[in-house]
Amino acid sequence: MKVVVFSGAGVSKESGLDTFRKGGLWDGMSVNEVANIQSWWAGPVSQQRMLDFYNHRRRECLNAKPNAAHLALAELEKAGHEVTVITQNVDNLHERAGSTKVMHLHGEIMKGRPDDDEDMIIDWKEDMNLGDLVNGSQVRPYIVWFGEGLPRFEPAYQAATEEDVDVLIVVGTTLEVGPANLCAFHTRAKKVYVIDPDPPAFGVSSGYYSQLSPHPDCTVVTQKASEGVRLVVDQFLS
Description:
The protein contains nine helices and ten strands.
């Protein structure tokens, strides 16, 4: 069976990593201060503020552990199913759980790149500061900021919309962020599961989920990520 998973911050919330919703990572902080390419170009003070923000997130990622949702998806792959995880998350918990085909749309917190070379991606597990150079260029987090394109979007979109996809599992995301959400909206999977403990009042017929509602076989699982993924995966392991 060919499975595509489209995951968001809600998957990693149960591992202790903040989401981007109200009450999460952005509370008391301007998005433009830490996640906009214009702020990076604003000069050393702004750059160090951004680096400090991602240093904190990197340390959180190092201390976090994969939860039951990550582990269940890896188990599905180990059982012989073809599983592709397309994630909006920048942590590496899917990989650490055992998933081998993970496509990060918005970058990876455990990696960096020279400021002047977007194609040179390097592992980076330590704090990152001004003066850290790679090939003479300031290193920056390998994160896609607002104002930048999605370098991994095309292969992810292609994987999500192939005709032979049997199942699409949407988990941990409200599908509000584009163009990443097109991976789900344009699916041709035979079966779609949306896992959300607090979906819109009318399920997939309202909000951003409404763009999935025309799908002939779409099921909303009103459980948190760890429980919902386990329920769905168990159907294919029995």
